Structures are given as C-alpha cells and as structure tokens.
Amino acid sequence: MKFNKTGLFHSLQNIDFKYFLSVRFFATFAAQMTSTLMAWQVYKITHDPLALGLIGLFEVLPFISVTLFAGHYVDKFSRKKIIIFAAAILLLCTSSLAIFTSTGLISNLAHGIWLVYGINIVTGVARAFLYPGMTALRANIIRGPQMQNSIAWNVNVWYTAAIAGPALAGVLYDLIGIVASYWIAVICFSIAIFSVFKIKEPGIPE
Q1: CA 162 to CA 184: how far, in whole Å?
Q2: CB 23, CB 83: distance < 8 Å
Q3: At 151, is the secondary structure helix, strand, or coil?
Q4: Is 204's pLDDT higher than 80?
Q5: Which of 26, 161, 172 is nearest to 98 (CA)?
Q6: If residue 116 lies in a helix (H) or strand (E), which one and from where to where?
Q7: CA 29, 67, 206: angle at the middle one, nearest 5?
Q8: How far apart are the first and last CA of the chain?
Q9: Residues 102, 163 contacting (CB under 8 angstroms)
Q10: CA–CA separation, 153 vs 161, rounded Å?
Q11: Which of 30, 64, 89, 117 is the most buried (most CB within 10 A)?
Q12: How far is CA 11 from CA 85, 89, 143, 202, in A?
C-alpha cells in the first residue's frame, strides 16, 4: 500500500504504531467482552439486578482509586512493561473465570458469585494501569506530523473494539457458551501482549 504523507493512512507508515493499534483493539475488545460475560453470568446465577449492578461498582471503584497512582508509575517506568503486566493480569483473570466456571466453582459454591466480584476488582486495578500506559506509549512512538492522524486512528480503533466486544460477547454466549467465550477473550489478550512485545519503545527508562 502506498501512503500519502498527509493522507488517511499517514501514521500507519510507522510499524510500531500498527502494532500499537493491534494492542489497542485486542486489549479493549477482550476487556469489554469479559466485562459483558461476567455481567451475563452474574445475572444468570442470581437473577438479581443489584448483583448485576455490583459488577460495575466493583470494577469502577478500584479503577478510580488507582488511576492517579497508575499515572505516576506510567510517567516513571517503561510503558511497554506496564502494558504487558496489566494485560497479563487481565489474561489470568479471564482464564480464571473460564476455569472456575467450567469446574462449577462459581455456580455451585454458596458464595461462588464472590469469586466473580473478586476477579472483577483485580481487573479494575489492571485496567487502571493498562489505559494510561497505552495512551503514554502512543505519544512515545509517534512523532511530529503523524501525531494528529494517529489520534484519529487510535480513537476509531478504541470505539470499534468497545462496541464490538460486548456485541460479540452476547452472540458468542448464545452460540458457544460462556466458557468458550471466555477463552476467546483470553486469545485476544494473548494477541495484544504479543503485539506489545513487537513495539520498539525509545526514550523510556528500562
């Protein structure tokens, strides 16, 4: 593909930015998909609107509480390492949901639903590091005239993933079940982590 220096695909001349967009899409897609699946799972078990509402609360509270702290560390340390660490935590959380669901720990235990809430709290903390890390990494790998075009790509990829994740989660939940759907989210997190490793990160302390 031939790129125009001021055209729609200008920032895609930067190979690291292509990998960044892969991280942005697959990490956001998987995170949104996992959140939707957790909500469906909780409501199916409890049939309680309050229990469903707690899913959002237990994710938002740690996210808000840790965001400023996370931003401080993003400014001081390698953005790549922070993103890899956060995405790996999200991958492990989603894998745990798949395993606990398939073995019946969540549905059979008297308080099994609190396993979901506990994992949800951990995902909220991980996402508090993931999103500032990705924002800072984009600024680190994009320079000069490519910046404005990269912002448009970044926003559009995020919105696409944020919409497609919950939508596909609902479809997959109906077609293949919740456990297989969780494992698809795990695969997406794996692709995101692989893409981060491919990015060169200049000017950040190791």
Answers
A1: 16
A2: yes
A3: helix
A4: no
A5: 172
A6: helix 113-141
A7: 85
A8: 35
A9: no
A10: 12
A11: 30
A12: 27, 30, 9, 17
58-96 in b/e form (b: 16+ CB < 10 A) is bbeebbeebbeebbeebeeebbbebbbbbbbbbbbbbeb
pLDDT, tens digit (0-9, with 9 covering 90-100), for 161-202: 999 999 999 999 999 999 999 999 999 999 999 999 999 876
Q: What is the pTM of this model?
A: 0.88
Tokens matching residue 125: 């903390």
The number of beta carbons lying within 10 Å of the beta carbon of residue 120 is: 25
What would the pLDDT profile of 136-165 be if each residue is shown by its tens digit?
888 888 877 778 888 889 899 999 999 999
Q: Which two tokens stand for residue 121?
A: 């709290």
Which residues, in sequence order, are CB contacts of 142 under 8 Å at separation 6+?
11, 14, 17, 150
Cβ contact 114:105 at 8 Å:
no
What span, in angstroms and rounded, lies between the C-alpha atoms of 80 and 105?
Answer: 34
CB 189 within 8 A of CB 26: yes
Report the length, in residues, of the chain.
206
